[in-house]
Design goal:
The protein has helices at about 20-30, 75-80, 85-100, 105, 120-135, 145, 150-160, 175-190, 205-210, 250-255, 285-300, 315-330, 345, 355-365; strands at about 5-10, 35, 50, 110-115, 165-170, 195-200, 240-250, 265-270, 305-310, 340, 370, 385-390, 395, 400-405, 410-419. The protein has about 425 residues and is an alpha/beta fold. It has one domain (about 5-419): Thiolase/Chalcone synthase (Peroxisomal Thiolase, Chain A, domain 1), CATH 3.40.47. Strands 5-4-6-7-1-8-15-14-9-10-12 form an 11-stranded mixed β-sheet, sandwiched between helices. Strands 2-3 form a two-stranded antiparallel ribbon. Strand 9 (about 305-310), helix 12 and strand 10 form a beta-alpha-beta unit. Helix 8 crosses helix 14. The two termini are about 15 Å apart.
């Protein structure tokens, strides 16, 4: 089967809006959390979020949004976008440039696009309210495509003239890892030569705050310690948004174009918990099976793995579940293999998380480092036996795993190898 490589990445994130800034944040453990002004109300118990910098998308009308000067997007294009689509558009421009793709490479029937996003609840709320208050015919014509869950692929496929396979994935926090896995299959099976994989979320009040009702968000008001995966005192995740785009290409395309890839994607695996609609299996059963399937698909064993980018979101139950899965799968190698959760820096990006953290893994493989797991003051006893790295250190990585888990017990593990 054809080999699959990552040849380009675009980042719009809470820790940087390009690969250079993101890499620097990962090395120096510079987090993106702040006391979030929209949460600064007495009735809101959550105080911290990890917003995207340089963009302002809170205004009801897209004409009033502001974005970095280097991006010029026409008003008629913006009208069909939610913030997540805007972030994805900018990240895709980066990824195309990073992979050195020509316009003909992008708009070609050998190039497809798979995306993951929850859409734009803020725009959908305004749309529905306006329909009830003023009537359906007073709603903006593009309100639906700007707000519903498919908005990211609708916009990118249209505006970048994508002609290959395209669809969206909806498995909550595993969504963009599912997108990457199935994109890998499209190339490995010879159906496409190139796939653009996108994860994107608004990262505002409407996408983050509803999780407070689930008791899933951190109530810690200190940005420096609110997101602390694997720490015994963790109390929930910190929400974030933005976008990451990965360019996946076949070996033949890499050779034809003469580009140097970040890394190779060796394979992937998925499995379901079959346990609970919102809570991970207490023993990490589904994630463990997903990891074993990924290793088998990649032709690897735990002995060949150097680093695991854990899903660990800083929730009390979820982190323990993943620790148990890691111990079960890594076995005698658990004390050697480096493990960290970069969500200590970024917060949790929901559908965005898998693609974003795969991008982090690609940087780590190319540049030779293991990102640290920040903000740990006292390691949870459940992590005993794991090699949780608290500091970023140089490392000649060969094989890394990236874990993702979502509602309904959806679990995905991606396997990457140094190119």
């Amino acid at each position: 089967m054809p080999k699959v490589f990552i040849t380009g990445i675009g980042f719009i994130t809470s820790i940087g809006n390009d690969a250079a800034a993101v890499g620097e944040s990962l090395r120096t453990l510079r987090h993106g959390m702040v006391r979030y002004p929209p949460f600064d109300r007495p009735e809101v118990p959550v105080k911290v979020a990890a917003p995207v910098r340089e963009f302002s998308t809170d205004a009801a009308e897209c004409e009033d949004w502001t974005l970095p000067e280097r991006y010029r997007i026409r008003r008629e294009v913006l009208r069909s976008m939610g913030p997540c689509s805007l972030y994805a558009h900018c990240a895709l421009l980066q990824a195309i440039a990073d992979a050195k793709l020509a316009e003909a490479d992008v708009s070609d029937d050998g190039t497809g696009l798979y995306a993951a996003s929850a859409g734009s609840p803020a725009i959908l709320t305004r749309l529905v309210n306006r329909m009830h208050e003023q009537g359906a015919m007073r709603c903006p014509p593009l309100g639906v495509v700007a707000s519903i869950a498919g908005t990211v692929q609708f916009n990118l496929v249209a505006h970048f003239k994508i002609k290959g396979a395209s669809t969206g994935f909806s498995s909550a926090c595993a969504s963009s890892s599912h997108a990457a896995g199935f994109a890998y299959d499209e190339i490995a099976l010879g159906r496409q030569r190139r796939m653009l994989v996108v994860g994107a979320e608004d990262g505002n009040v409407e996408t983050i705050l509803p999780f407070a009702g689930m008791r899933a968000l951190s109530l810690n008001p200190d940005p420096d310690t609110a997101s602390r995966p694997f720490d015994v005192a963790r109390d929930g995740f910190v929400g974030t948004g933005g976008a990451t785009v990965l360019v996946l290409e076949s070996e033949a395309e890499v050779k034809r174009r003469g580009v140097t890839p970040y890394c190779e994607m060796l394979g992937w695996g998925q499995a379901s918990d079959g346990h609970n609609v919102a809570i991970s299996h207490p023993e990490g059963d589904g994630l463990a099976r997903a990891m074993r399937r990924a290793l088998a698909a990649a032709g690897c064993t735990a002995a060949g793995v150097d680093y695991v980018n854990a899903h660990a979101t800083s929730t009390p139950i979820g982190d323990i579940s993943e620790c148990r899965a890691l111990l079960a799968v890594l076995g005698s190698e658990a004390s050697r293999i480096a493990v960290s959760s970069t969500k200590a820096l970024t917060g949790h990006g929901l559908s965005l998380a898998g693609a974003m953290e795969t991008g982090f893994c690609a940087l780590a493989l190319r540049d030779g480092f293991v990102p640290g797991s920040a903000h740990i003051r006292q390691l949870d006893p459940a992590a005993a036996g794991l090699n949780i790295r608290r500091e970023t250190r140089p490392a000649a990585l060969r094989v890394v795993l990236n874990n993702s888990s979502g509602f309904g017990g959806a679990n995905v593990c991606l396997v990457l190898q140094r190119a």
